[in-house]
Amino acid sequence: MVGLSFALYIGVALWSKARSTGDFYVAGSNVHPIVNGMATAADWMSAASFISMAGLVSFMGRDGSVYLLGWTGGYVLLALLLAPYLRKFGKYTVPDFVGDRYYSQLARIVAVVCAVFVSFTYVSGQMRGVGIVLSRFLNVNATLGVIIGIGIVFFYAVLGGMKGITYTQVAQYCVLIFAYMVPAIFISILITNNPIPQLGMGAVDDAGINLLDRLNGLNEALGFDRYTDGSKSKIDVFCFTAALMLGTAGLPHVIIRFYTVRKASEARASAGWALLFIALLYTTAPAVAIFARTNLLETVTYEQNGELQDIRYDDAPEWFKNWEKTELIKFNDINEDGKIQYRGSKSETENELEINQDIMVLANPEIAKLPNWIIGLVAAGGLAAALSTAAGLLLVISTAVAHDLLKGCIAPHLTEKQELRAARIAAGVAVCIAGYLGINPPGFVGEVVAFAFGLAASSFFPAIVMGIFTKRMNKDGAVAGMIVGITFTAAYIIFFKFIRKDFDSPEFWLWGISPEGIGTIGMLLNFIVASVVSAFTPQPPDDVQALVEDIRVP
Amino acid sequence: MATSDKNRTYWRKNLQYLAILLGIWFVTSYLCSIVFVEQLDKIQIGGFPLGFTFAQQASIWIFVVLIFVYAWLMNRLDKKYQNDRDNAENPE
User: Which residues make beta-bridge pairs with B48?
Assistant: First the structure.
């Protein structure tokens, strides 16, 4: 199954080789909006979306909504405030726009550095995901898994550039959504008799009890919070969601996809298609989360004379023991009664079971007793999600280096052929670095992702929006805003995530806002500083004002 | 109509659409799904508590609809703008 999917990607890549820099950077700008929507969806949905998100929501209950809302709502901002205008502007990259609009090499370089940094942090997580999937499902050593992954990405990203990536991403979207939906539909039928997971989560059983009420009851009985209640503060949830949305809209590997369609109107439609394809998975995930949680709790307990009892370890189902071997499930019989006591923090009994969030998706096929080929399908789906995102990110890095840095700043007289070669070399080098990071992951990948979103939210998003919507915004204002936004956000995150981890709790946070959500405040600061500074400095030159005028109309 | 006037009308209409659609976006994602979620949860439709459903299902579908509505409105506006320009170039 996995081999088949790999062969498919290579075939697609051979068929769509890049011949010019336009092909390499933006696939010749003639991709159909629906095709681009699919590619964007695959580009966006990473290994984390595919493997971890349902599990994360499953353990967080309503608090998990921050990811569901945050990683989809950004597309509304993207479609309404950014994508069409950037497409009208033309050229190839985000630093291109920032550099030209703010007539400043400094602004361009700040944008390049941010784009490269954000992309590298992201890509190392994807490579790690490739290693994990291959080693868990196929018993390949994780290092070898990463090397196989690099080989494939190297082949089609270096050869095909954006053109190759676009069409392989379409294939990868099909593989990953099929692999996600099939087990989800089966488990939905198993638990609710409804084949549509999104409807199944609101199912009412024969006794007239709602699935969600049943789950709330089980959670409470075992000392967890009710599933549909939240435990985080409102302001933190608010800022966290906003930071993810603004970050999504500002991430360069997402924005660059909208340069590949023919015109601004297609960029709008394409964003709609992209979100529709993403929504398929993102609305299934919370349903899977609910089914998996219910199923888990009903596996470790049974009812006797109307009372909830813990099952004996010896009676645990086979999938439970299989996944114990991978250490994704850990059972430690603390009170030595041979029973599995799975308890939340509100219970007086000590918890004996530790469960990794990834299991909620990975073990689904086994829990639903599906045939072996579906397990292979899930592996192929996880790989598709990781590889497609990795490829998109690598392209941003290679474009930033070859086009923005080399051609834009250092050697403007490069011929097209030389630039194309430079882009290929940059992509090659980037793949190798990403592979290295995947094999030897820095211990702080999780923290760094918060960083990536915070930076994108507090730098790119305001700079681009102001560049389009206020003609008066000038170089001084934009640069000052970006610097203040980034410095504030970075300092806050570095302090709580790296320097004083012991202070990383609500009572020390500024207004109770977590480091994950601080990008929102950084963005507001950026807007304020930029407006104030630009009011006291000269207007942008006439040709820049004419440029703004021009990107606003069709 | 002079080009600059036409551009200004087009842009003002666009900003109007943006204000309305982003207003809906804000209400569904921040007010219904986060700020007033508990109050909405008291209303239950079938097995779906309203606030929770907004946060984990409905908002996402509304986002999709918002983008398509915007794309449709703007295509209509683009066409009108194009017609106005053609008429200005070939006055009868």
Answer: B45
